[in-house]
Write a structure and sequence with these properties.
The protein is an alpha+beta fold and 453 residues long. Helices cover 29% and strands 32% of the residues.
Length: 453
């Protein structure tokens, strides 16, 4: 009992002093812990709510993407995005095969008009740049000197004719006298020779008259060919001579007109084969940018040798040039139609893809899922590619957005600009073939070695 009574019992809480420092410290520690827990709970709830909202939005977008709208998730890819692409429909038709080269327009005839007589140029009857016809008067040289020469020759002719008439009368008289034995035969023969001399003089006088008339006609300068006149080289009032090197003017024939162009020698056999069979090969001239067609013509001839320095051969094409759009020395891109590939499936060249597996296209099925089709290209013309197999007409192919595609990806197709570039639809230059299978007459823009494949 004495030990129990000596033990110290803990002091009751109520007996502690309210201002105890240790109690204050413990109170602030518990308050800090409760604050951290509250902040953690609030952060967790906010993150959970945001995740639920994003999941709800994703499910909504996936539902919208399944009907072909927006960039949602879901579909055939099982969560893969729906890729927006531009598509075009494959068509059935023909594609032309062109050989292309750089050409120079050459005037069919070029004439530098000179005067054929010496004299003063008194008038000019043409305007610079004027189209003239063969036989039109171009200029006039003072004709008076040649008129005087003509009159002198005519006077000499009249004199010789009178003398011959007198000699001929005497010859008839001498023949009668010789028949009566009054004069010797020698005297009659001399008189007969004198008549022959006057005959020769009359012919000479006639030739002099013809020469004077010719010189007089040369004083009227006329157009030797039909064509366009260039700039005037001599003005009226100047003395001109037949030996002048520059001439008076230059006339170039523009209708028809020719184009000289070159092609690689590897293409020569195909062109020669076509020409030997009697086929008239169409030729078309394009501008320097190779985008707009200028004129249409036909192949006229092939040079007889190959240029060893360039490995090319020259060809000559003829153009009617009724609208005078071709000018001499103009540079043009020439397209020679040598063949036509028929019964092809035509798609825009933008649809053609190349990879380790070869040449292929992305085809879109009825469920807007892309599939890879390996194809074989038979001919490429401008923006159109003709396929011999691997794709059927009417199938839809992707022409823009292929970098995000792979087999089985869901797409959101749209036509837009791409459909106008389809193989059966002509572009602004009219280079693509029509859907009815007929080849276009407008060739593609290709490098100088041609675009046949």
């Amino acid at each position: 009992m004495a030990q129990l009574e000596s033990m110290d019992l803990p002091e009751p809480i109520s007996s502690r002093k309210v201002g105890d420092p240790q109690a204050k410290i413990r109170w602030w520690i518990w308050l800090l812990v409760f604050g951290v827990l509250a902040i953690g709970i609030l952060y967790y709830r906010g993150s959970h709510s945001k995740a639920e909202a994003e999941s709800t939005n994703a499910r909504g977008n996936a539902a919208a993407g399944g009907t072909g709208g927006g960039k949602g998730r879901g579909g055939a890819g099982g969560g893969s995005p729906v890729v927006p692409v531009v598509v075009a429909t494959a068509q059935h038709g023909d594609l032309p095969v062109y050989f292309t080269g750089l050409g120079t327009v050459t005037a069919f005839n070029t004439v530098t008009v000179h005067t054929r007589v010496d004299g003063q140029l008194v008038s000019v009857a043409f305007k610079e740049g004027q189209f003239v016809h063969q036989g039109d008067v171009l200029a006039q040289i003072d004709p008076r000197p040649f008129q005087v020469i003509l009159e002198q020759a005519e006077g000499q002719l009249a004199k010789d004719q009178a003398q011959r008439k007198d000699a001929e009368v005497n010859l008839e008289r001498f023949k009668l006298l010789y028949g009566e034995g009054v004069i010797p035969k020698q005297q009659m023969d001399t008189q007969q020779s004198q008549v022959g001399q006057f005959d020769g003089a009359i012919k000479t006088d006639q030739a002099t008259i013809d020469s004077a008339k010719l010189q007089l006609s040369y004083s009227h300068i006329i157009a030797p060919i039909s064509g366009r006149i260039g700039l005037r080289l001599v003005d009226a009032g100047n003395m001109v001579h037949a030996a002048d090197p520059g001439g008076l003017l230059v006339i170039t024939q523009l209708q028809p007109i020719s184009v000289i162009f070159s092609l690689p020698q590897d293409q020569l056999p195909q062109v020669v084969t076509k020409t030997r069979s009697g086929t008239q090969l169409p030729v078309e001239a394009f501008d320097r940018d190779n985008t707009a067609k200028i004129a249409s013509g036909s192949l006229a001839s092939i040079d007889n040798q190959i240029d060893t320095t360039t490995g090319t051969y020259k060809l000559k094409a003829m153009f009617k040039n009724d609208d005078n759009v071709l000018f001499p020395n103009q540079f043009v891109n020439v397209h020679l139609l040598v063949d036509t590939k028929r019964n092809l499936t035509i798609v825009p060249t933008a649809a053609i893809q190349r990879g380790p597996q070869g040449t292929y296209v992305y085809a879109v099925d009825s469920t807007n899922v892309v599939k890879i089709h390996n194809v074989t290209i038979a001919q490429t013309t401008n923006d159109s590619a003709g396929l011999s197999n691997g794709l059927n007409p009417g199938e839809v192919v992707v022409i823009d957005g292929q970098d995000k595609l792979q087999e089985g990806v869901k797409v959101n197709p749209s036509s837009g600009q791409g459909r106008r570039n389809a193989g059966a639809t002509a572009d602004n230059s009219g280079n693509a073939p029509p859907a009815n299978g007929q080849p276009q007459t407008t060739p593609p823009a290709q490098p100088s070695r041609g675009n046949s494949r």
